[in-house]
Write a structure and sequence with these properties.
The structure is a single chain. 74% of the residues lie in helices and 0% in strands. The chain has 104 residues and is mainly α. The protein has a single domain, classed as Helix Hairpins (Orthogonal Bundle). The chain is elongated and about 60 Å long.
Length: 104
């Protein structure tokens, strides 16, 4: 028995990941959790790129774009973690609601 995974299944998984990422970004106050939500959103976009490459006529451009998004996500994570560490060093919290205390 073979299981055929079609474009619809890829898009459903991508939509679920994207929805969970948006939910995580909108409801969390912890900066690390917001970063994890952003990563989920970027992974959902990567699934879409690879799925449309597999089932469409895009050749390898979707996979190249997915690799670019992975590189961009790694750079974004490094910069955001540096900001979070600086925020923790200055105000001893990673709560994004208290970022305005850094103005003082």
């Amino acid at each position: 028995m073979t299981v055929h995974v079609g474009l619809t299944q890829f898009l459903v998984v991508s939509a679920i990941l994207f929805s969970l990422g948006i939910f995580g970004v909108m409801t969390r106050k912890n900066a690390i959790m917001v970063l994890m939500g952003i990563e989920l959103i970027l992974n959902a976009a990567n699934i879409n790129f690879v799925a449309f490459t597999r089932f469409g006529l895009m050749n390898l451009s979707g996979q190249v774009t997915a690799v670019f998004v992975i590189i961009l996500a790694a750079a974004e994570a490094a910069v955001l973690l540096a900001i979070v560490l600086n925020m923790f060093q200055q105000i001893n919290t990673v709560n994004v609601d208290e970022v305005d205390k850094l103005k003082n």
